[in-house]
Amino acid sequence: MQDLKGKVALVTGGTGGIGSAICQRLADAGARIATTYRNEEKAKSWAAASDFDPIIIACDVGEYDDCVRMRETLESQVGQVDILVNNAGITRDATFKKITAEHWRQVISADLDSVFNVSHQFVNGMAERGWGRVINISSINGQKGCFGQTNYSAAKAGMHGFSMALALEVARKGVTVNTVSPGYIATEMVMAVREEVRQQIIAQIPAGRLGKPEEIAALVAFLVSDDAGFITGANFAANGGQHMH
């Protein structure tokens, strides 16, 4: 496993299913972990239950000024951020006929504006120091679309456009920027779906099962390693063969 001792990793939305697994995996490799949260009670219980003493900072990643404040708080505690995983996101599902402007705005803000808002705080510093890793956690639905998710699919597709463009700008500075697009993963959110609906989803996955959060975390751990230094601007699909592009 890559030794990340001395590195600081910020994982937005790190208290969720995939986010927690990423935090644990990077902590196991020696990184100091920080995460943002909106729900204080959930974040505090998550931090108390973890074995790696994470730094938790309240932040609405959809608000630029809040991200500036978060950076100042984080840097005063642990210094520079070396690894950024943009993982925070929400859904507000509705068919296009029924979707509201507010549903659209909320998802674009939380899922796409956030990628700019947070990256803008840290990428310049990474480039100046000559090393950095940015991983944007997108979705299979940003690659293939999904009924009732015009807002979410647009935001998640936009994340990879961002990755490709930023990757070009910082490639010579030792900073890589990549996208990971998970398929259906066995998180609390997916496991809360009605059993018959979940079985219909699994029936569409050639691997015949849901993914594990740890499998996404393992991919992220590779992408932040020195071994992945020649990989940038790429989109890694991890969906059990559900969508091949």
Which terms summarize this structure?
single chain; 245 residues; alpha/beta; Rossmann fold; seven-stranded parallel beta sheet; 7 strands; 47% helix
**Low-confidence segments, ≥5 residues, pLDDT <50?**
none
In whole angstroms, the N-to-C terminal distance is 29 Å
Judging by the overall fold, what is the CATH architecture? 3-Layer(aba) Sandwich
Strand order of the largest sheet: 3-2-1-4-5-6-7
CATH topology: Rossmann fold
Strand fraction equals: 5-15%
Task: Please count the helical segments.
Answer: 9
CATH superfamily: NAD(P)-binding Rossmann-like Domain
Helix content: 40-55%
* Derived structural class: alpha/beta
**Main beta sheet strand tally, sense and closure:** 7 strands, parallel
Which shape, going by the Cα principal axes? globular
